[in-house]
Amino acid sequence: KVHAFDPTGVYDASKAEPMEAFSSTGFADATIDFIQRQGSSDEPFFAWVAFTAPHDPRTPPAGIREGLDDSKITLPPNMLTRHPFDNGELEIRDEKLEAWPRTPAAIRRHLGEYYGMIEQLDGQVGRILDALQQSGRADDTIVLFLSDHGLGMGSHGLLGKQNLYEHSSRAPMVIAGPGIAPGTQRDQLLYLHDIVPWLYDRAGIEAPVELHALNPGEYSRESLVLNYRDIQRSLVEERWKLIVYPKVGLVQLFDLEADPHEQYNLAGTDEHAERVHRMRAALIKQMAATGDTASIPVDLVPARDQPDPSSPVP
């Protein structure tokens, strides 16, 4: 169900109406109509298309999954039957969408549904880009494809997004448009909001507030601080990533260059003890700078890599 836009921000549930099409299709239809209504005008336009796919319930339209064999789907290399330890909020809604222990067949089914939703979404993005091309305005339009998070889908024994592993916190950012060389790739640390000042500049609009200048490819943060409620905190550097679980006093350190799937916790090794100490201090400093009052324990215990067979299943 959807609501007509209300500038007051108050949406009465009784006024919601069902969409006539599958959600991604309906959003694309509305966007294509908007683009076509711009006609040949030189006036600038802005379209924000907030697709809900591939969020659950993962129910791709009929026909998308016909003929697909879930048994041939490749499992994630870091798949586990369950998460190795209590992360502070393990029994949240997303994680209750499948029983523990996770089985290969169950994860393949979830992945099949996930991929089906993504395939259908991809087609709708294509329809929007085709409409933009047909409008004659593609050559002077900047297109961004962004996401706010990913899903576990079996990685680390998780299904949802309530974690700070790469599979959930590393979001895509794809940009196309005038002055952007096709095929250019950058591997740098950015927050999604870092793109805002660049967009203002490219659109020739004066920013309403002071924003840090950004030129993709030349600007990169030295580190990122990630958080999930008051339950998890992480400091990400170019190669190293520290994850702290304040509620349960656990810590992880991953070498993202050698271990991109975060399978080997180095926090308990003598070799990296000083790195853990330094990154913990840097995390606390950055948290303080933003008013984050979550308490990071002094005596953190390295978290397990693999589930303990003797511990109870959630």
Characteristic terms for this protein:
about 325 residues, single chain, 5 helices, two-stranded antiparallel ribbon
Radius of gyration: 22 Å
C-alpha geometry: globular
Estimate what percentage of residues fall within beta strands: 5-15%
**Element pattern in H and E:** HHEHEHEEEEHE
The low-pLDDT segments are none
Helix content: 10-25%
Which class best fits the helix and strand makeup?
Answer: alpha+beta
Helical stretch tally: 5
The order of strands across the largest sheet is: 3-4-5-6-7
Number of strands: 7
Tell me about the largest β-sheet.
5 strands, mixed
**What's the mean pLDDT score?**
91
Distance between the termini: 33 Å
What does this molecule look like?
The structure is a single chain. This protein is an alpha+beta fold and about 325 residues long. It has five helices and seven strands; from the N terminus they run ααβαβαββββαβ. It has helices spanning about 25-40, 105-135, 165-170, 195-205, 275-290; strands at about 145, 175, 225-230, 230-235, 240-245, 250-255, 300. The strands form two sheets. It has a five-stranded mixed sheet, covered by helices on one side. A two-stranded antiparallel sheet has the order 1-2. Helix 1 (about 25-40) packs parallel to helix 2 (about 105-135). The protein is globular and about 65 Å long. About 20% of the residues are buried. The mean pLDDT is about 90.
